[in-house]
Amino acid sequence: MNHCLICGQTGNPMIRIYDDNGQLHIGTEPEPDMKTVSVCQNSACLMKVKKAHILEKVFQRKIPYSFYQSMLSNLTEPSDSRSGLLGLGVRSRKVVPGFTAVEIAARRNQLSLIILDEGAKPTLQKRIQGICGKYRIPLTTYRGDKSMDTVVGKINCKCAGVKDPGLANILSRQFADRGSEKRTS
Ligand SMILES: [Zn+2]
Hints:
Elements: E1 14-20, E2 23-27, E3 35-40, H1 43-51, H2 54-59, H3 65-72, H4 81-91, E4 95-97, H5 99-107, E5 113-117, H6 122-135, E6 139-142, H7 148-152, E7 159-162, H8 165-184
Parallel strand pairs: 5-6
Antiparallel strand pairs: 1-2, 1-3, 4-7, 5-7
Helix pairs in contact: 4-8, 5-6
The structure holds zinc ion.
The site of zinc ion has 6 residues, from loops.
């Protein structure tokens, strides 16, 4: 199959997921003798693969979370500078992604800023606001061209904690700017 399983296009760079004797692999070239699924190398199509459980249906088995993580790490999209900085922060461990990591780091007084996705559910918003109040950590809203989980490389991630004070400063200013840009446009 050479078209994207999600959007049906053929022209985009693709990643291929194929079944090699019961083991799933990720590559960029089709494997002629193996059952192969092609998906565009962009966040929109890759996220839909996970959300609609496409791989489970095609390969008829449970797909571990870690497999989706490595699928996402194959993204090639250029990121805008703000979300790029956030992704870089995660890779250099200056930013911790996800509620559990945020909660632990907050309790240890390690956070200079918490970033909450604008699409976060009200229950998560409340819990994060609670943590910010309790540990006196500033809160900012994530706004980016790409969803937060794509940027930080953790599926369904809606919040992140910034440990580095300098990076926290830059990010909070940048996301605040972004908010006013949106309002005036
Ligand atoms: Zn596609």
